[in-house]
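Query form — protein Membrane protein

QUESTION: What is the three-dimensional structure of this chain?
INPUT:
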Amino acid sequence: MKNNLEKCQLSQNEIQSKIKLLVLSIFIGFLFYQFGFNYAGISVFIFICILSLGFIIINKIKVVNYMGIFFMIIAIFLSISYGIYTNYIFRFLNKLLIPIALISSFLLITYENMELEFNTFITLVLDRVFGISIPNITNMPFLINCIIKKNNSDKKNGKMKSILIGLLISIPVLILLCIILANADSIFGHYINNIVFNINSQSIATVLCKLLTSIGISAFVFTLYDSFSTKLKKTKADNVNNIKINSIVVITIFTMVSILYIIFTKIQVCYLYGRKDLPQGFTYSEYARSGFFQLVFIVLINVISIILIKKHTEYNNSTEDKSLLSLYSLITILSFNMVFSAIYKMKLYIRVFGFTRLRILVSIFTIFLAFILIILLIFIWKNINLFKPIIICGAIIYVGVNFFNIDEFITKNNLNLLVHSKSIDKYY
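ANSWER: The structure tokens for Membrane protein are given below.
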């Protein structure tokens, strides 16, 4: 968009496309003004559908990318959950995840040969928002001026387009004037309230704040959608990707860690699963129920470490390579025991203290980690793209959890557990 502003060389098709985008952006800003400051419900679904449909109408689907379509479907499903459940945790998370899913979808259905690598893709998404769209908001007045000048040179359609631009500019002006007049005359305000704007007792400051925010949303949507009309700039590889680790060092570290994990697994098999007589001072109930979060944390560290170290380790011969792959696999297999142990411990803990949101969500995350370990084991030997299957698996599980009535599940099961235990967290 910047080059167009500097040269002000827009074709007739480009002008028409940008006018359509401007109308769409104003309409989206109007919808945000109407729904964005109220309690989020089915309006979120309507808003996301219009954003998706508007993008397809303006920019078209240039590449049939199934991951792009998948991301758009995920965003739409997450928006539907606002009209069904009221879980504040998911409502907060979805405010972040829905825009990320939409922008990811737009990138994938617009540009060919998109690399679905974690670092590259996240950089592209962040750059699209903070590096292109937001900075270009300041260029909008110059773009509108460029369109007006271009239209003035067209004698045939100049008047109609000037009228259209005048109408578009007059909309926020009329809204602002109506707000001020509505506060100046209560009868006028009453009729305006009933007919169009649904403004009742809001102060001028509140309305102005909402109006400015809505205008900001309109401008952001315009610059974001307009940015997809330009070619994709390939990001430069970070210096971090060039870091290489000596394979002998890695083999030594992973060998020591593997020995520790084998000892830990042997102890768990004997005492946790086999119920061998515990050392003096330990009770099985306390031993079995403790350590869940620590195990989940270690499994997460194992997964991240293997992915990063495998990517950055430099080996000198096939023997070192096979040794590394074997150690990665051994630690991954031992991590399966930690996942199973964590789930087993949480099951025993819930049996005594009952269900809570945190316990359920962390248990689901642990199961997700088990799926990641399976994918990781394949990645170690086949060198597949980890990001794509993990995203698909995680997105499906997350959407499923959004439509799972956690509070109802907690209430029903805790009432059943009360019969056998008096230690249930009765708050739930």
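ADDITIONAL NOTE: Residues 189 and 305 are 63 Å apart (CA to CA).
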